[in-house]
Amino acid sequence: MAKLFKILLTLLFLLIATLGALFYYFNGQVKQPLNLDSDTFFRVDSGQSAKGILNRLKSVGILDENLGLKINIKINPELGNIKVGTYLLTPTMTGLDLLDLLVSGKEVQFSVSLVEGLRLRDWLATLKSHPNLKVDSDFHEKVNMLAKDMSGGSLQGWLLPDTYHFVDQTNAYDLVLRAKNSMQNYLSDAWDNRAFDLPYESAYEGLIMASIIEKETGVAEERPRIAGVFVNRLNLNMRLQTDPTVIYGMGDEFDGNIRRKDLRTPTPYNTYVIKGLPPTPIAMPSKLAIDAAFHPITTQELYFVSKGDGSHQFSETLEQHNAAVRTYQLKK
Questions:
Q1: Which of 303, 299, 300, 301 is nearest to 322 (CA)?
Q2: CA of 179: how far to CAs of 173, 174, 183, 189, 282, in Å?
Q3: Fold topology of 29-104
Q4: Own/partner pairs, 54-58, CB within 8 angstroms, 24+ separation
Q5: Which of 10, 17, 229, 324 has an alpha carbon 20 to 30 Å from 277's alpha carbon atom?
Q6: Which tens digits make up the pLDDT trace of 271-312?
Q7: pTM value?
Q8: 77-128 pLDDT per residue, tens
Q9: Closest CA to 120 of 291, 288, 282, 289
């Protein structure tokens, strides 16, 4: 009896030792760093199982062994509930970290910067060329349909410049909607909190003004001052006489230069010919330009001219303005 007890005790010890060795071995597998030299994107498509993903990772050499991870999934079935998406794998990540990431659904975030001052067609081209955005065949048709519901019948000016973050294969049209909704919300707040007695009949007219301000200067602190000049001219029923509107009205005929005949050629956007604001924005205005349009600086200034360094010389009288033109433009 004692001998049998010793044998059973020995077998139990061996079993415990074997289980311990197996636990140590498989635990080492799941905690071993991935075979990566740098950060790597990994895509999980619809219909792929956790087991299939682990086999795929082993076949491409990212995992040396995957049996330990499969055992973990058997013990904890929740680890098999992987989510479709694109994930960022890092060299310091273990196999268990990888499973946790795929189960969490925390996809890698991509971004696209939609820059102020550009036109709608430039923005659409940026979205279409982004490698992580999905562009449907009816993309432009959807954009045109959306534009029909907007003031001006165009999305020009209606998309808010910003950096937009998204997951891989997001539909490009969804970003158009996000930018449009962001602009509508920002413009509505700006209109509700505008300065008193502005010469705009609607928030949309303020948006048109903001787009002109955006194209006139890249110097942030000048925007409210330029807005003040344009507001003064509108109040006096003076033409705005701003070159960016002329350029916009010329369309593809603009070759980089504005000539005298261009200033005299009538278009709906030529503010040397028409009075008041053009019919639509001429670019996508930033938040700063919108703020300036609705909160212009109060001055008596009616003119400004570029100094050639990005800034402008402002004047109250035509005589002062002509002198500034001679100083900064004609001599150059």
A1: 303
A2: 10, 9, 6, 16, 17
A3: Dna Ligase; domain 1 (3.30.1490)
A4: 57/98
A5: 324
A6: 999 999 999 999 999 999 999 999 999 999 999 998 888 899
A7: 0.84
A8: 888 899 999 999 999 898 889 999 999 999 999 999 999 999 999 999 999 9
A9: 282
Cβ(320)–Cβ(303) under 8 Å? yes
Kindly report the average pLDDT of the chain as a whole number: 89
Beta carbons within 8 Å of 228's beta carbon, 6+ residues apart: 296, 297, 298, 299, 301
Eight-state DSSP code of residue 244: H
**Separation of first and last alpha carbons in the chain:** 113
For residue 254, CA distances in Å to 123, 277, 278, 308 come to 19, 21, 18, 21
Residue type, 214: E
* Structural domain boundaries in the chain: 29-104
Counting beta carbons within 10 angstroms of the beta carbon of residue 28, is it exposed (0 to 12), middle (13 to 18) or buried (19 or more)? exposed
**CA distance linking residue 216 with residue 242, whole number of Å:** 8
Residue 171 bridge partners (DSSP): 134
Helix (H) or strand (E) holding 142: helix 139-148
**Largest Cα–Cα distance in the chain?**
122
pLDDT over 70, % of the chain: 90
Which amino acid is present at 168?
D
Query: How many Cβ atoms sit within 10 Å of the Cβ of residue 247?
Result: 19
Residues 229/302, Cβ–Cβ less than 8 Å:
yes
CA–CA distances in Å: residue 16 to residues 12, 24, 28, 67, 71: 6, 12, 18, 20, 18
CA atoms within 13 A on the CB side of 252: 1
Contact 270, 254 (CB under 8 A): no
**DSSP label of 302:** -
| CA dist., res. 113 & res. 110, Å (int) | 10
